[in-house]
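TA notes, week 10

Several of you asked for a full example with nothing omitted. So below is the full record: structure tokens for the whole chain, then the designed sequence directly under it. When grading your own attempts, check the secondary structure regions first.
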């Protein structure tokens, strides 16, 4: 499955930096589909960390790659990085996955 995203419109200045980690042993699909004119979808491998920008009203949908059932739907403010650290994550140790690519 390909990584899919379209750019967030540049005039949306209320973007937040978010962090998600796949803590399972299964490949997951993370997707934001509730923002009009914006699509964000990533394959997230086991133990992989995903750093991305989103709007505060965005919902991250998480599914197993081999199933269509929804595992979780997480409001992006719950995933927001605060002061460069989230859940013990040192952002200097991660790779940025930009939603603008």
């Amino acid at each position: 499955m390909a990584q899919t995203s379209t750019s967030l419109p540049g005039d949306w200045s209320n973007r937040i930096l978010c962090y998600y980690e796949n803590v399972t042993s299964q490949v997951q699909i993370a997707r934001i589909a509730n923002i009009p004119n914006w699509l964000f979808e990533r394959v997230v491998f086991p133990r992989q960390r995903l750093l991305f920008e989103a709007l505060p009203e965005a919902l991250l949908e998480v599914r197993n790659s081999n199933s269509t059932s929804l595992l979780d739907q997480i409001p992006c403010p719950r995933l927001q990085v605060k002061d460069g650290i989230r859940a013990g994550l040192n952002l200097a140790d991660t790779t940025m996955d930009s939603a603008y690519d």
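Residues 87-101 have pLDDT under 50 and may be disordered. Use that as a sanity check on your answer.
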